[in-house]
Amino acid sequence: MPAVSVGNVGQLAVDLVIFTLDMPKVGYFYTDCLVPMVGNNPYATAEENSTELSINAEVYSLPSKKLVVLQIRSPFVKNKYRSFCQTVLSWVKSSRCAKVILLSSSHAYQRDDQQLHGTPLRYLLSPAIQKTAGDLMQRLNWKEMEKVAAYPGVNDAEMVVHIPGGGITTLLFSESCSNEIQMAVLLKFCSEGDNIPDALALVNYLNEWLQLIKSEQNSDAPATPSQWKIPHSWRLLFGSGLPAALF
Predict the structure, then answer these.
(1) Torsion, Cα of 89, 60, 137, 156 (10° steps)
(2) What angle in degrees, to the nearest 10, is found between the helix axes of 9-20 and 196-210?
(3) Cβ neighbours of residue 35 under 8 Å, at least 6 residues apart?
(4) How far is residue 118's CA from residue 213's CA, in Å, rounded to a whole number?
(5) d(CA 186, CA 91)
(6) Per-residue pLDDT tens for 128-142?
(7) What is the pLDDT of residues 167-203, one digit of tens each?
(8) Which has the closest alpha carbon to 187: 216, 156, 165?
(9) Is 172 in contact with 88 (CB distance < 8 Å)?
(10) Which pTM does this prediction carry?
(11) Amino acid 48: pLDDT
């Protein structure tokens, strides 16, 4: 599932997973914590399915890969963050999900010195998933999200996870740790703008772990950006363009 975060990177990455794997929609996630919205089918491939309606939170499933995806398409209602986190984690528990992966992003301009080095991709693991996934992350040579001082210049001893621009990421991760839920957060430092390259980088990062798709040349090699199918609705990410009459 995505966090509604800077550049909508998590949501765009989830779009790529759903469309590339041709995941069927199996239901809706009803909640009053998200701003209501309705629109056409973002994954339409023909005129016949282009008029299907989509709402703010929908569930897609692919049993062959034991994968369930929750896509979120609208921002949160003010003061409803905690309520949403509790609802999602309750659903995760009742559905007996093996693990939860949250795709997110964070403001690149708010990185501290240690976060400026190396890859802009980071991960976080809850204690419950550390035993099963921790060693794999080390083998993949991934970088864990660095903790920063809770009160810089006042008390540098207390270190906390800080994800500016990450939306519900920190809260949902904290709640997962408290509820002993297996959760991994994958995120990318980025800036607002054309965030398609960021989404491709994040979904490839996810694919290194889950191996959702394989390279066409080598089944053991990671996927390349060109192997991810981009939804046709992305053509309107920046609107429909300026009317020619203006010029």
Answers:
(1) -40
(2) 60
(3) 56, 74, 75, 76, 77
(4) 26
(5) 21
(6) 999 889 899 999 999
(7) 999 999 999 999 999 999 999 999 999 999 999 999 9
(8) 165
(9) yes
(10) 0.90
(11) 80
